[in-house]
Amino acid sequence: MNISNFINWSRENGIKSTASVDQTPYAGYGLFASRDTPESTVVVSIPQNLLLTSRKALQQSPRFSKPIFTYLSHKYNTTKDIQSIAESTDNERLILCLFLIYCKFFDTTTYWTPYIDILPTVSFFQENHVLFKPEYVAGTSLENSVRSKISNLQIEFESITSIQEDWICDMQFEMYLWADCIFWSRVVGIGGDEEEKEVSDKALIPFFDFANHSLESPNIRWQLNNGGIDLITYPNVSVNTNDELLLSYGSKPNQELLFLHGFCIDNNTEPSRFMLPLLPFFSPMEQGYNLPKVQWLKQLSVKPNLTLVPHQLNKKEDPLAQCGWTDESIRVMYLVSLEEDIEFIMEDDDSITFQLLGKNIPSLTELEAAVKEMDIFPVIQLRVAMLLLDALEYHLHLNTTFVQENNETGLWKQANIYRSEERVTLETASQSLSTLRDELMQHPVVLSYLENA
Ligand SMILES: C[S@@+](CC[C@H](N)C(=O)[O-])C[C@H]1O[C@@H](n2cnc3c(N)ncnc32)[C@H](O)[C@@H]1O
Questions:
Q1: Residue-number span of the structural domain to which 143 is assigned
Q2: Looking at 216, 250, 284, which one is the last position of a domain?
Q3: Is the CB–ligand 1 distance for residue 26 below 6 Å?
Q4: For 46-55, 84-93, 99-108, 139-148, which range has the lowest pLDDT when averaged over its residues?
Q5: 212 in contact with ligand 1, CB cutoff 6 A
Q6: How many domains does the chain have?
Q7: Burial code of 246-259, b = ≥16 C-beta within 10 A, e = fewer?
Q8: Residue 152: CB partners within 8 Å, gap ≥ 6?
Q9: What is the pLDDT of residues 309-321, one digit of tens each?
């Protein structure tokens, strides 16, 4: 019923299509070819008036936009030009999410209702999205990202609902999470003009957004057409009646697919990165140089994580890079491991000057060059390897602690694909680090350092 309403609405509003929207066995709805279609042929054509942008949402009704203008006036502390602030690309996500909530829960008679009616529901995401089930990624490096996203959304939600006006008063956090899931799993960047902030960059596109993802064998792609959008078969790819029409959402690692969409791809060739929190290496904070080291890193705007990219053996010369650590992570770990010959000078403007062997070190790159010149460089490398080994063992333990072998439900199964991939990354890096540690333990510089210690 909902589907036929939606199809009628699509036709009445100018969508031309030789495709149908139907249930798939694995991903809710999908798009299917209704006839045999040759290569490079338009299968769906969506006119500009059906691209749902924040600007269109704001034009929908004063009841929707008035509380939003009130909120934005508070947020930006101005009543001037609030319409253009609302329409700016900075607020596109916010406006579109609030509009989804408005149409779904507060006014089910808008122009967009037939579309909103067939979008995945709150209960769908409660079962199938990590924003509703952060415990499914517990012990993996995605857990931090998911939990910090939830708390950021909570802060944003409380700030919006604090204005206590009309429908906004009755908004619940669950609705806000739902809208965020819908937004990020369907939004399309249609390329607004950076210079002209009022031009919309993001759109929700009915019909188009029922196309599911295939990394290896997509058979359709999209292109803009007079402000609207077309789905078109690839050159050299024809489709048969009832074939599912699949887009490529891009080469995304499972970490990103799970975070945004709630699914993973078996044997995904795009590697997920493991993010290791940096702060535990500086604990306790009052010890030695930990506090100035952290302040210096903040001054350089260094992110508070180390990054492990699955194995890049033979691609890099540095043995720590061969274990998978990014250049910045290695440089930061040199700083963590330095105990001797360093000094931090607090300047009058509260900035910190870092010196190694009496020489000013203004950046991490220069730190790396200076550390490599030190006589005890192999000792520093050994310290780094041992600290990282400890950290990886701890995270391997966390990764395996939360496994539920018998839970084969949809999202858990998807999260487990990612969890296993991360476990392999950690195990491989640990093995390489153990080998490096053993080699460094035999290094003459290390042996003489230990003898004299
Ligand atoms: C743009 S929508 C596609 C339409 C969606 N299936 C629906 O029922 O509304 C993207 C969502 O479809 C699902 N999806 C797309 N491709 C998938 C795939 N290859 N495997 C599993 N789920 C997929 C995910 O839930 C994703 O967030």
A1: 2-250
A2: 250
A3: yes
A4: 84-93
A5: yes
A6: 2
A7: bbbbeebbbbbbbb
A8: none
A9: 986 655 668 899 9
